[in-house]
Write a structure and sequence with these properties.
The protein is of the alpha+beta class and 380 residues long. It contains 7 helices and 21 strands.
C-alpha cells in the first residue's frame, strides 16, 4: 500500500475518555486529529460504558482535597494543585455545568444522576462530535519527536502525520487492548516503566478447594512482603479456583506491583482477618453460625475459629482481567501542565503516565482532570 503524508495542528493519540474530553474542551480552538485503533468513531471512549458495572463512578471526593500527602494520591499533588488551584473541583464543575452531567453521591463516589454510564459518555461524546476534531482509525507504530512526525499503520496504508503538538492519551493495555499497541513507547526516548496488570484478581500458590470457589468472605485483607504488612483493605473477598478477587483484592494488586517494582524476589502473601468488619466485632459468633464453606476449610486446615486465613502470592491475572495498567511514562519527566520538560510539543495525560490509582473513580477522575489541565495550556 502507498505511504501518504498529512499534517495537523494538534495530534491526539488515543480516543479514550481523556482524549475525547480534551478534544471536546478545546472545541474549535485547535485543529485536532484523533488517532485510535477503534475502527468506528462511535466506539471511541466506549470503555467508560462498562465502568462501575455500567454505573460509572466517574469521580471520588478524595480528588477534591486541597492537598495530597499520602501515597498514591501524593503523585497527583503538583499536577492538581501547583499553579492549578484545585483543578479537580474545576473539572467537576465543568462536567456538571458545561456538559450537563448531573450526579449524586454514594459516600465518596460520584455517579451520574440516572445511575447509567451512558449518561457520562453521551454528553462528552456529543461535545467531541461538535468540536473540529477529525478521526483516523489506525495504530501508531512510531513517533519521531525530533521531526514531529507520527507514523501510523491504517487499513489504507502507512501514514506520516506531521504535527505541531502531540498528546499521548493512549492509556495502558488492560482489558481488551493488545499489548503490542504500546510498543511505540520505545521510540519516544522518554523514561517509562513497563506495563503490568493492575486492579485485578491475584493467583495464589495454595490449592483453593472446590467448595470454597465462588464464595465470599468479608473482612480485612492485608498484603505482606517478607512477613511485614505493607497495606490492608477492608471489603469482600471472592474465592476463585486459583486465587482471590474482589475490590479489596484489586486495590491490593496496586501495592503488589509496587513491591515487585522494588524487589522482584520478595515473598508476598495475603492475610484475611474476618473477625470484624464495618466496625462490628464478630468474636461472639459461634462456630455453628459460621457458613459451611468456612467451617469446613478451618477444620481441614486445623485452624481455630477467627484465626486469619493465609495465602501466598503467585501471580497477577493477565491484562484482559485488569481494570487498568500499572506503569507508563514517568511523571517526573513532565511539567505541571503535562508537557514534557525537554519537549514543549509533547504531552501525556491519563493512564499513559505512571500514576497508578485504586478503584473507585480515581482513574477516570484523573483522566478527566489531566485533560482539563492540559486543555488550558493548549488554548492558543
Amino acid at each position: 500500500m502507498p505511504k501518504t503524508s498529512s499534517s495537523c495542528d494538534l495530534l491526539v493519540v488515543g480516543g479514550g475518555i481523556a482524549g475525547c474530553f480534551l478534544s471536546a474542551l478545546l472545541g474549535s480552538q485547535r485543529e485536532i486529529l484523533v488517532v485510535d485503533t477503534e475502527e468506528k468513531k462511535e466506539n471511541l471512549a466506549r470503555r467508560i460504558k462498562v465502568s462501575g458495572n455500567g454505573r460509572c463512578n466517574f469521580f471520588i471526593a478524595d480528588l477534591l482535597a486541597d492537598a495530597f500527602s499520602e501515597f498514591p494520591l501524593s503523585k497527583l499533588d503538583r499536577f492538581f494543585h501547583t499553579n492549578n488551584e484545585n483543578a479537580a473541583k474545576e473539572t467537576l464543575s465543568i462536567l456538571e455545568g458545561r456538559f450537563g452531567i448531573a450526579s449524586f453521591r454514594e459516600g465518596k463516589l460520584f455517579y451520574p444522576f440516572f445511575n447509567r454510564s451512558e449518561c457520562v459518555w453521551k454528553p462528552i461524546w456529543d461535545a467531541f462530535c461538535e468540536s473540529s476534531a477529525a478521526f483516523l482509525s489506525g495504530e501508531v507504530v512510531r513517533i519521531d519527536r525530533t521531526n514531529r512526525i507520527c507514523h501510523v499503520h491504517s487499513k489504507d496504508g502507512e501514514r506520516e502525520i506531521h504535527y505541531r503538538d502531540i498528546v499521548l492519551a493512549s492509556g495502558g493495555i488492560s482489558y481488551d487492548r493488545n499489548p503490542e499497541q504500546a510498543s511505540f513507547l520505545n521510540s519516544l526516548g522518554i523514561p517509562y516503566f513497563p506495563f503490568s496488570p493492575s486492579l485485578c484478581p491475584v493467583r495464589v500458590k495454595e490449592r483453593i478447594p472446590p467448595y470454597l470457589v465462588g464464595n465470599r468472605l468479608r473482612g480485612r485483607i492485608s498484603l505482606l512482603a517478607d512477613r511485614k504488612e505493607i497495606h490492608a483493605e477492608e471489603g469482600e473477598i471472592l474465592f476463585k479456583d486459583d486465587g482471590l478477587s474482589g475490590i479489596a483484592v484489586f486495590n491490593l494488586s496496586l501495592f503488589v506491583n509496587e513491591c515487585l517494582r522494588r524487589n522482584r524476589d520478595a515473598f508476598l502473601s495475603f492475610r484475611i482477618d474476618y473477625s470484624s468488619h464495618d466496625g462490628f466485632d464478630g468474636q461472639s459468633c459461634s462456630l455453628a453460625a459460621f457458613p459451611h464453606f468456612l467451617s469446613r476449610y478451618l477444620e481441614e486446615r486445623a485452624l481455630s475459629p477467627f484465626e486469619p486465613l493465609s495465602f501466598s502470592f503467585s501471580a497477577l491475572y493477565p491484562f484482559r482481567y485488569s481494570q487498568v495498567s500499572y506503569g507508563g511514562l514517568l511523571p517526573e519527566s513532565f511539567r505541571n501542565d503535562f508537557a514534557l520538560r525537554k519537549d514543549n510539543s509533547f504531552h501525556a495525560i491519563g493512564e499513559a503516565l505512571d500514576i497508578n490509582l485504586p478503584c473507585g473513580g480515581y482513574n477516570i477522575g484523573f483522566a478527566l482532570t489531566s485533560a482539563y489541565i492540559l486543555s488550558k495550556a493548549l488554548r492558543r
